[in-house]
């Protein structure tokens, strides 16, 4: 796995050998970041990375100059690796918390400019995630939900775009999709 763009472009991103999950492919990450490039001013953006897994999406945001990145991951081994990666790249603007994302959302009071959610594709609450997460994006903010083909969000009133890269779908939401 490598960092796709920004100041750390091309650098390898260490990942646990026994990673438990489905990391976003480099192909899908590149497509996502190219799409976000037209929607986000990286220097002014605060990012929340839910279901962080490898932390690769957080590091892509750090590499592009995000103001602040908060990663939430439930697996303790993954959290340790994400912390090591933040330290390796001296990402002082990034922090990771070990927490269940669904529980964390219930107590969170912060808002963000960009929220990236990459839940397990079989998460029972996946269809309701946009409604749960939208209150935490700023007025002009963007929520990106990664999901499989089983879920479709084009008809959701806050969905303004959907992109597919291989088997991965990204749905884009905002409070004011027009």
Can you give me a brief rundown of this structure?
Helices cover about 25% and strands about 25% of the residues.
Give the SSE layout:
Blueprint: H1 26-37, E1 46-50, H2 56-63, E2 68-73, H3 76-88, E3 94-98, H4 101-107, E4 112-117, H5 129-133, E5 137-147, E6 159-165, E7 168-173
Parallel strand pairs: 1-2, 1-4, 2-3, 4-5
Antiparallel strand pairs: 5-7, 6-7
What key attributes describe this structure?
178 residues; Rossmann fold; 7-stranded mixed beta sheet
**In angstroms, what is the radius of gyration?**
15 Å
Provide the spatial order of strands within the biggest beta sheet.
3-2-1-4-5-7-6
| Largest sheet descriptor | 7 strands, mixed
Oligomeric status: single chain
**What is CATH's topology name?**
Rossmann fold
The percent of residues in helical segments reads 25-40%
Name the shape in a single word.
globular
| CATH architecture verdict | 3-Layer(aba) Sandwich
Number of H- or I-type helical stretches: 5
Terminal Cα separation, in Å?
Answer: 35 Å
The number of domains: 1
| Content-based structural category | alpha/beta
Give the overall pLDDT as a whole number: 90
Q: Indicate the CATH class.
A: Alpha Beta
Instruction: Write down the secondary-structure element order.
Output: HEHEHEHEHEEE
Account of the protein in words:
It is a single chain. This protein is an alpha/beta fold. The protein has a single domain (28-38, 45-173), classed as 3-Layer(aba) Sandwich (Rossmann fold). The chain is 25% helix and 26% strand. It has helices at residues 26-37, 56-63, 76-88, 101-107, 129-133; strands at 46-50, 68-73, 94-98, 112-117, 137-147, 159-165, 168-173. Strands 3-2-1-4-5-7-6 form a 7-stranded mixed sheet. Helix 5 links the parallel strand 4 (112-117) and strand 5 (137-147). The radius of gyration is 15 Å and the shape is globular. The termini are far apart.
């Amino acid at each position: 796995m490598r960092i796709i763009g920004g100041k750390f472009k091309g650098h390898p991103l260490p990942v646990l050998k026994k990673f438990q999950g489905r990391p976003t492919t480099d192909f899908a990450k590149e497509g996502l970041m190219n799409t976000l490039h037209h929607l986000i001013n990286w220097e002014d953006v605060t990012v929340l990375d839910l279901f962080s897994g490898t932390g690769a999406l957080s590091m892509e945001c750090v590499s592009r100059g995000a103001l602040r990145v908060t990663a939430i991951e439930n697996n303790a081994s993954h959290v340790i690796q994400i912390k090591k990666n933040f330290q390796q790249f001296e990402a002082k603007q990034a922090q990771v918390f070990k927490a269940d994302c669904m529980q964390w959302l219930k107590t969170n009071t912060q808002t963000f400019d960009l929220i990236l959610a990459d839940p397990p594709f079989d998460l029972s609450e996946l269809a309701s995630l946009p409604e749960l997460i939208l209150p935490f994006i700023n007025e002009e903010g963007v929520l990106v939900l990664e999901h499989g083909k089983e879920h479709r969000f084009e008809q959701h009133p806050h969905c303004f775009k959907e992109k597919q890269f291989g088997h991965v779908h990204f749905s884009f939401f905002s409070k004011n999709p027009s």
